[in-house]
Amino acid sequence: MSAETIQSRREWLLSDRPASRLQARLGRAYVAWRRFSANRLALVGMLIIIALLVVAAFADVLAPYSPTVGDLKNARLLPPGAAHWFGTDDLGRDIYSRIVYGARWTLYVVILVAIIAAPIGLLVGTIAGYAGGWTDTILMRITDIFLAFPKLVLALAFVAALGPGIENAVLAIAITSWPPYARIARAETLTVRNSDYIKAVQLMGASPFRIVLRHIMPLCISSLIIRVTLDMAGIILTAAGLGFLGLGAQPPLPEWGAMIASGRRFILDQWWVAAAPGAAILIVSLGFNLLGDGLRDALDPRSGDQ
Amino acid sequence: MTTSITVEGLEVVFDRFRALKGVSLEVREGESYGLVGESGSGKSTLLRAITGLAPVASGTIIVNGKTLGKTRDKAFYRDVQMVFQDPYGSLHPRQTVDRLLQEPLAIHGIADGEKRIERALDEVGLGKGFRFRYAHQLSGGQRQRVAIARALILEPSILLLDEPTSALDASVQAEVLNLLEEVRRRRKLTFLMVSHDLAIITHMCERLMVMQNGQAVETLTASQLIGHRVSEDYTRNLLRASEGFVRV
Fold this sequence. Notes:
The complex is a heterodimer.
Chain A: H1 3-13, H2 21-37, H3 40-57, H4 59-62, H5 95-131, H6 133-148, H7 151-162, H8 166-192, H9 196-202, H10 208-244, H11 256-263, H12 272-299
Helix pairs in contact in A: 2-12, 3-5, 3-12, 5-6, 5-8, 5-10, 6-8, 7-8, 8-10, 10-11, 10-12, 11-12
Chain B: E1 3-14, E2 17-28, E3 32-37, H1 43-51, E4 56-63, E5 66-67, H2 74-79, E6 80-83, H3 97-107, H4 113-123, H5 140-152, E7 158-162, H6 170-187, E8 190-195, H7 198-204, E9 207-212, E10 215-221, H8 222-226, H9 233-242
Parallel strand pairs in B: 3-8, 3-9, 6-7, 7-8
Antiparallel strand pairs in B: 1-2, 1-4, 4-5, 9-10
């Protein structure tokens, strides 16, 4: 592609008078991307998350050994080396392979929690903010009750009630993480609900449901995306914490938190058993945080001409 | 001539504040009626009460022969539309002009959307080039034209104008006012227009009502106002103030 065609494409994207719906939408996305990519650290964060996705997708190819079946006889607690990059654990399983497969479970937890918690929070918050009055009071007091519990303790209680396992851990984390989203969505809703453009839609005879869904929610979504991305690190840590306490993923599932828990017993002599999954959690959490910061700069409705 | 809007003894109360204290007025069909007064005199509140945006405590509002209750139905909004004062606040920041204009058509289930949007944009003097722009890609005057197009797309018979030009600079003001005049003539619309600018009101309206502190001061025709044939002191003061600075 020559420099000229790139130049003309950029002009097409940044055009002041887009000729189609698609061009308008792409132009908008391009502006957001330019703002995002100006932030080097955010790009690093995005690369980490993309790497996580790739590792999870191609775990079968990338992992040299089975994540669950080890060589108890010959390969117990081997230090990092050429055969086992991150060493082996007490059951003779290759830690590198387990971390690679563990990426799948990390993504599974993070995505499921985001899919469950964010829409609940968004719905509760926008409805409370737009309806006001009794609806608002009831919904927000319920939110307050959930917020009053320490997150991990409430998740613990849920897992204890539902039984240990990664699905229940996901559910417990989702139940404990929607209240902040509801708060954010409500706050955003309160700032726009009395604006003239919402009034104008009311004057067209739109139902409250339609106004919330099509006019208010799109305005809340960017701050929500930012918050969810920043929370991803916390979700991973909570999942790891539950795994560490034996209430999340059950053996022999290669979940990072559970791996640290099982490495605890020999943390002084065979440090690599706990250190490798710990480093994985650290890097992925950092990636999500950097990505979230970048998204905040790119999507913040208060910055510039959104 | 039939009446389009009749308001009798209208009271609007926000919490404990009485914003309107028993205002009555009558707007004839096809007429352009002005509401004048200082800030806080209740002229915008009157418009908002008609559209259902302000809480009516007592009094009756009759629009095209129908007495309005607490809620307004969809048919009402096809008859009555409003243009807001601030064009920077009245367009959704995340929607293209296209989306903005499509919304009323979708709400009312009107089928020939494509044609209507093109016609509406033509009518307010914005070509096709503006159809897929976002609000931030438009100037103040262009935004107000989009707001007018949005109000007209449901083909209402009454247009409520809440200081439609006060946020625009002088040359753009004239353009928008001419556009409104033209639209009114072509569509035989009834206007109820709020302004604090007497010059605009005398230019646009045949009759007008002067308001102060939520009450009607007096009702005049435009020619009475031009000829300074007014009976109330308040109106006289208003006229003097509108003449602007006098070098001493």
